[in-house]
Amino acid sequence: MLSDRKFRLLPQGNRQSFFVMLILITIIILGRILTLKTDELSWDVLGYYIHLPALFIYNDYGLSDLGWIHTLLDKYHFTGTLYQISTGPDNNPIFFFLMGMAILYSPWFFVGHFSAQILGYPVDGFSLPYQYALALGAIVYTIIGLVYLRKILLNFFSQSITIITMIIIVLATNYLHFMTVKNLETANALFMFITLITWNTIQWHKTHKQLNLILLSAFIVLMALCKPSEVMVVLIPLLWGVYDKITLKAKFKTIYEYKGQFIIAFIVAFIIALPQMLYWFKETGYFIYDSYKNPGVGLDLTSPHIIPILFSYKKGWLVYTPVMVFSLIGFFFLYKKNKGLFFPIFSYSILAFYIIASWTEWWYGASFSIRPMITLYPLFAIAMASLFEYLKDRTVVIKSVVGLLVVFFMLLNLFQTWQLNKYILDPYRTNKNYYFAIFGKTKITEAEGNLLSADFSGGGNAKFPGESYFRHKNIGFYNFDEYGDYYSSHLVSDSLKGRVLKMDSTYNFSPEISLTYESMTSKEYVWIFAEADVFIPYGYKEELPLLVMTFERREGSYFYHSYGIDTTIYKPGSWGKIKAQLMTNDVRSKHDKFKIYIWQRGKMPVYIDNLKADLFEPK
Q1: Three-class secondary structure of residue 526 per DSSP
Q2: Cα Rg of the chain, angstroms
Q3: What CA dihedral angle connects 349, 354, 358 and 364, to 10 degrees?
Q4: CA angle 325, 326, 328 (to 5 degrees)
Q5: What is the 3-state secondary structure (H, E, C) of 245-309?
Q6: What integer pLDDT is reported at residue 7 of this predicted model?
Q7: Contact at 8 Å (CB) between 315 and 217?
Q8: Are 598 and 513 in contact (CB under 8 A)?
Q9: More confident residue, 37 or 13
Q10: Residue 142 in contact with residue 188, Cβ under 8 Å?
Q11: Which of 235, 407, 459, 592 is deepest in the core (most CB within 10 A)?
Q12: What is the C-alpha separation between 236 and 376, in angstroms, rounded?
């Protein structure tokens, strides 16, 4: 009798969608358990998470001593470079990422912390109990997201359309990959927050209850603390129901009518944001501070990568998640059905997409398809469901064609997700030729592997494949036989070399070989060979000079590489060479400058001559 009463609590007409949702949740839970790894807290996730061990284990939230971080990295190897730590105005270390994700991780951090103590694992914040507790605990946020996605869809559509749309979102898109293998990344949290914000927007406009507005403000702030650009999600409640001048005036009237509620909601939002603001103020002297300081990546709003983000075989959203074309078509039918629903969803979606496309690393690391698009899926689900609602009255032929396409796209997504996790589908180097060569395959041959794009992961350790594959040209040369206005006072005569450049504490940096990337090549990458003759005097005991190659932009240097003289070959008292070869990485902007120069780190004089650089461009 008790179980029967519980069952009746679920409206009879919605039971099927509820059980479908349970099945989808079960699939996600099993997928997460089966894909648990020993590096769950790596790369960006490390940056989101590191707030917690810094505060609760190492008592160093101000990052006054980074020794404990380097010790942990030497042990666990969770990142190649410590980009997760940014700098304040005084070059003091601060957290690169805001504390939003750390807040969501915190319950599971304490579960892991307690488990590590009980099970005898290192209580260091990174041993397996911490990693598994966070990965499994984050499933809660996935469940919340699906529960509210279902509630939103049922608010506007029938049970059958809700079921179809939920299945497509979970099994036919990259959502599945990021709710299992990658569920500690922001996509999980942002999907959940979009559903919560949308649902409370719906409820507040129905009932005008204070609680819904308070929850709205809290979720908006938390979402922005996870990803600052998502503060624009405020457009959803602000524009809800607005599509012309009349509805805009009505919205202003409603806001004024409930201004007391909005004041309370604003106070709640401020309280939630206050810890982050106080942290910034303590470490930087500012209540609002941009910690996203990485010259290699960032927003370039004037140069969005719209075409590659949609259609590239490297990561194109509609290439790897083609089923979402139905959501794009669905916006037309959503507009016809409900303009008040269309405009807030479309306005936020188009702005969010533009920001996503403006990120310089538009492929978003090792993601499957375009990871941040998952944030928009709850809203795209509404548009997709609008299309399916229209199709329900169409002919059997039309519905069958759409149905077959949906099934094909779903199978394709599941198979390519498997290919990605088996390292058949390369997350960085896939191109058109490789994509079609491995399409539908469960293993790759050496010939297929040779079709991959250049491997940038090797950085300065990549090996030059040979001149026959490249076109060669010189891009710069200094032999110092001619006077230069700036460095003429530092030129001296050498019996062997003629006129050479003297470098010491008064002249640390040589003249630069400097070119914009677009002036060097139109290719994806080039090889640069650089060299310089160097004379180290007898008795020299200071730091040796370096040959530096780097990209530079207004924010600073990135892709920085330096090379020293081989002291096993060249001895003090004789001329030697610094030689270097480097394959360029993904350039942030074609307008960025590639610079080559000598940096003299010591105070005693050294002498250089014949600074030269050659470029090898792929044929």
Answers
A1: coil
A2: 29
A3: 30
A4: 65
A5: HHHHHHHHHHHHHCHHHHHHHHHHHHHHHHHHHHHHHHHHCCCCCCCCCCCCCCECCCCCCHHHH
A6: 38
A7: no
A8: no
A9: 37
A10: yes
A11: 592
A12: 12
The residues near 419 (Cβ < 8 Å, ≥ 6 apart) are 425, 438, 441, 442
Phi–psi pair at 612, nearest 5 degrees: -140, 145
Closest CA to 108 of 136, 128, 88, 80: 136
User: Nearest Cα to 455, choosing from 616, 584, 590?
Assistant: 584
Q: Looking at the DSSP assignment, which residues form a beta bridge with residue 595?
A: 514, 550
Single-letter code of the amino acid located at 232: M
Label the pairing between strands 470-478 and 491-494. unpaired
- The distance from CA 484 to its chain's CA centroid, rounded to whole angstroms, is 44
Residue keyed to tokens 């075409």: 307
Three-state DSSP at 536 gives: coil
Q: Do 337 and 386 meet the contact criterion of CB atoms below 8 Å apart? A: yes
209-218, 281-290, 484-493: segment of lowest average pLDDT: 484-493
Q: Which helix (H) or strand (E) holds 547?
A: strand 546-553
Q: How far apart are CA 262 and CA 239, in angstroms?
A: 15
The predicted model gives 22-29 an average pLDDT of 98
CA separation for the pair 611, 479 (Å, rounded): 7
Provide the token pair at 530. Answer: 């650089």
**Which pLDDT belongs to residue 2?**
37
Ramachandran angles phi, psi of 84, nearest 5°: -70, -10
What is the three-class DSSP state of 56? helix
Q: Compute the Cα dihedral for 267, 270, 272, 275 and give only its sign.
A: negative
Q: Is the pLDDT of residue 5 over 80?
A: no
Residue 594's DSSP bridge partners are 515, 551
Contact 137, 47 (CB under 8 A): no
At 1 the pLDDT is: 36
Residue 12: pLDDT above 60? no
Cβ atoms 466, 407 nearer than 8 A: no
The yes-or-no verdict on residue 163 having pLDDT over 70 is yes
Would you say residue 203 has pLDDT above 80? yes
Q: Are 146 and 374 in contact (CB under 8 A)?
A: no
Local structure of residue 610 (DSSP, 8 states): E
From the list 342, 347, 323, the residue with the least C-alpha distance to 383 is 342
3-state secondary structure of 617: strand
Q: CA 59, CA 225: separation in Å to the nearest integer?
A: 22
Distance CA 373, CA 328 (A): 13
Positive or negative CA dihedral for 71, 72, 73, 74? positive
Joined together, the tokens standing for residue 215 give 């929850």
Give the N- to C-terminal CA distance of the chain in Å, as an integer: 76
Say if residue 39's pLDDT is above 80.
yes
Give the pLDDT confidence of 444-480 residue by residue, as tens digits: 999 999 999 888 865 556 788 888 889 999 999 999 8
* Amino acid, single-letter form, for residue 302: T
Question: Could you tell me the sign of the dihedral formed by the alpha carbons of 138, 140, 144, 150, in that order?
Answer: positive
* Residue 226 φ then ψ, to 5°: -85, -40
Mean pLDDT of the 109-130 span: 98
pLDDT attached to residue 508: 94
CA 423 to CA 416: how far, in whole Å?
Answer: 10
Average pLDDT estimate for 339-351: 97
Q: How many CB atoms lie within 10 A of CB 17?
A: 23
Question: Is the predicted pLDDT of residue 8 greater than 50, yes or no?
Answer: no
Distance CA 578, CA 546 (A): 8
